[in-house]
Predict the structure.
Amino acid sequence: MGKRLLLLGGGHAHMATLASIKGLLSQGHEVTVVQPDDYHYYSGMGPGMLSKIYAPQEIRFATRLTVEKQGARFVRASATAILPQKKKVRLDNGQDLEYDVLSCNVGSAVPALTGQEKGLCFPVKPIVSLLKAQQAALRLLSRGPVRLGVIGGGPAALEVAGNLQRLVQDAGARKARVTLFAGRKFLADLKGPIRKRARRNFVRRGIGIVEPGYVDRLSPDKIELENGENYESDLTLLALGVNPSALFVDSGLRTGPDGGLLVNAYLQHPDYPEIFGGGDCIFFENQPLEKVGVYAVRQNPILCHNLQASLNRNGLKPFRPGGDYLLIYNLGDGTGIFSKGRLTFGGRPAFWLKDWIDRRFMKRFKAME
């Protein structure tokens, strides 16, 4: 007798499972996918969409089309609660969906700042928010001098600020100013050679860096630091790192210290073996994982196998995070910074390599549409 598989989110960790829907249906199982948007945007190319290097359709997967084309059910909604004892998920549209096996790939969110609701302020996640920020920035740039702020001192802030400057330049706005508010230290957690290359690039392009100094609050046209300094900003982007979805804490499920769904070596919740998860929303109990997309991609085939095995009562495979991973940062001006292990280099070759890798990833899974 077939079982009910419920997927929350169509992100990187669920790609292989989405590609396997037809096979699951042929085995007699039911598959339902819940996502708040018909599309899933690839985070690795998000900053490039902000600068118009990429069009929105180039960096998104048509989740709804992929699901319905294979004969499964797609529900456009967000989960508000998981009821594990009843094997139900409650949605923000009022529906309760039942499941036999549940997999969560609901991503993460940028922490909020006091006052951000009062002006033009856009968190960098969900990625579609960058498209809204782009459109709002272009409206401002068409009117005259503009002050644009990016809050955050990590890789996401680096890429967003660099690509925002590209947007400004291509719009021909000579009196616009992009300023990065880096907190304690610009790229504090990255290697020295990366920091030097990034800082040199920003100085050359006229991107301001404010450090040290944490942002305390936002007002409609200002960024206020804890030390009392104020900076004018007509539009602000938040790139403060990410926290897992609050869904699991709100549902009373056991989580890791960051609030992510606790999962074991099989990407399975220890208390409820029918619940699985991947990507930024989980806490891998074997070892904490950084919130980088490479782990979701690596979890992809293992999660697919284990979901099918759970439906069909077969053996599970453990997830092994692997060793060093490649990181390439898109600086928005046609250059990038490459880093893996002890090797770091920059320039156009770094961006070309990132662009080739990202486009290959998109092509592979867009074939499902």
About this structure: The radius of gyration is 21 Å. The mean pLDDT is 92. The chain has ten helices and 25 strands. The first strand starts at residue 4 and ends at 8.
